[in-house]
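Q: Second attempt. The first request was missing the SMILES, so the protein and pyridoxal-5'-phosphate are both included now.
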Amino acid sequence: MELLSANLPTPLVPIVNEITKSAQISLYLKRDDLIHPLVSGNKWRKLKYSLLEAQHVGARSLLTFGGAYSNHLYALAAAGRALDLPTIGIVRGEELANLPFSSTLQFCKENGMQLVFVTRSEYKNKSDKNYLKFLSEAYNGPFIIPEGGTSLLAVKGVSEIVDELQAQLSQSVDYYAVAAGTGGTAAGILSRNQNVLSFSVLKGGAFLKSEILNLVDSTIKNDHLQLFTKYHFGGYGKWTPELLEFICDFKKDFDIQLEQVYTAKMLYGLFDLIITGYFKPQQTIVAIHTGGLQGLLKELT
Ligand SMILES: *Cc1c(COP(=O)(O)O)cnc(C)c1O
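A: Got both inputs this time. The predicted holo structure:
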């Protein structure tokens, strides 16, 4: 994406500690958090082809969906600004219009995004054909990007992580580990026939398995995908002191910042798998740091 230049390939750093040593595995962290200062991590990869397509069709604005803490809304506001395309955000929760904005919504507003607050029941129509038609007419034919940026174009963008890795690492990768919110990122890697360990950050995230599989070709074998649902720490946007302590320890040990919504839950779960003997000696695991650091709790900075 020329107009949204990124730092590619993103660095791949080995993560070595007593846990990885005693399990005799190689663990790497792919630093997609460093891909772009504002359109961070997987959001850059997920938006890449949607933005190119929007330019290609001569879109005059971009419309998408998200909650008050959505990293996707934040990324799209920044991308729209950089590409000089007006953005419209359909935000879940009409009550938010009259409350102090979250820092994410504040950023979106400052970057010129038109925020439209809708009720939770209206928001549920976010993929309904008639609702999309209604929005298209109401907002003068914007290029519509689904919630979380997740679409087949997003899958294509994320799949490029696999090419990057193959150029960066001489050994083959046994497993990729990613956090899953909508599952688009997991689908991107799975689409290249890689073994994916996905960690739901939502409570009751079991439905994500079929969501992920629906985004990839039916020739991809189900058994390439593992979904772990117990590392949600209370649910989306929730955390426990234990998770925050994990973030602090990780920073102390590796000088890498994680955040509490996605990446910390994934890495906590991954270390739990390593400790409990999930992997065989000599296996190689690549975890993706999907970014999201603008949503980091202030007390952790
Ligand atoms: C959005 C996001 C995810 C979740 O990605 P999905 O493709 O929706 O599963 C993971 N990590 C970070 C930091 C994110 O912002």
